[in-house]
Amino acid sequence: MSGVEVIRSGLLDGLPHGFLGRRGGVSEGVVAGLNVGLGSKDDPVAVSENRRRAAGAVLPGATLVTVHQVHSATAVIAEAGPDVARPHADALVTDRPGILLGILTADCAPVLLADRAAGVVGAAHAGWKGAIGGVVDATVALMETLGADRGRIAAAIGPCIARTSYEVDEAFFRRFCEADAENERFFADGRAGHHHFDLEGFVAGRLAAAGVTRIEALGLDTYADEARFYSYRRATHRAEADYGREISLIGLPGQEVTP
Description:
The chain is of the alpha+beta class. It has one domain (6-162, 198-251): CNF1/YfiH-like putative cysteine hydrolases. The protein has 6 helices and 14 strands. It has helices at residues 44-58, 128-133, 135-145, 170-179, 199-209, 232-237, and strands at residues 6-7, 17-20, 63-65, 75-77, 91-94, 99-105, 109-115, 120-126, 154-157, 167-169, 187-189, 194-197, 214-217, 246-251. The strands form 3 sheets. The chain has a 6-stranded mixed β-sheet. Strands 1-2-14-6-3 form a 5-stranded mixed β-sheet, covered by helices on one side. A hairpin with a 4-residue loop joins strand 11 and strand 12 (194-197). It is globular. The chain starts with 5 loop residues before the first strand and ends in an 8-residue tail after the last strand. The relative contact order is 0.22.
């Protein structure tokens, strides 16, 4: 395949960051492309090479740090270390140059955050469980412990499943409305007993409620754009044996950190 495609946010311009899809990798079959999922059934050698390519496309020489994602609201301060020691969490923050934060998605919303003045960055994996549970709120709060100010934080929401592609049932709808009646605005009517959920809009709303005033939503649908993105829901609808994961990255330039 051709070179790695890096999708960038105007709000984060000048910082090493990017939302990556499936273009530019070495994986084959149903996960063809830049699959970085350690939990996939893909060849581990291919996954390792894809992770190397992804990191190199955003911040060459940096140490990639990811977490074992569990759809939680847990955010942690990134520590360089082996992949087998990844903490169970869904967001990372750092103020250390040379560390590259990575969040994996396949329909969930990746969120990259930065307070340039404080030199603090964060990355969050916001699926619906983490989003309603408060993962972006936890990320912003943890960034503040490193010196960030939520009033200065800029946040970008990358490729995720769009409302037109995200049909949910009545129980899902009620769960969100019972948590907050205002959440009804993130749903549109679907076929009988179903609704369409705006995950991207909901995450943007949570960021705004947390005091983040500069938010960019890229509006890219992982489900609909098979050429560019992996999608868990698309793979499930097709009864495919596996699905790939894309990665979103942000870091601070500087000296490489040795695990």
